[in-house]
Amino acid sequence: MDRCYFCRGNVSPKKIEHLHRWGDALLLVKGLQAEVCEECQEVYLPPESLQILDDLVAVLQPRRMTVVGDFSVRGGIKTLVTASYPK
Prior knowledge:
Elements: E1 11-22, E2 25-37, E3 43-44, H1 47-60, E4 64-73, E5 77-86
Antiparallel strand pairs: 1-2, 2-3, 4-5
């Protein structure tokens, strides 16, 4: 993604912390590689890790869970994402 959907500003990769809500649980994902608009600070997350966690929690209804996503893409960019769900 080169341009922000909302303000058309430049978008660049950054590592962020993201709070994700699932039901009554809050999940803090640290060091998440995301695309962030330089103008309005809109954040574009890679949906893979968060979708996997949502799907697993919905199906299994665990007491706690940790999902680790290890992403390597072209250009030498590597992202390790850990998300945990306590019930």
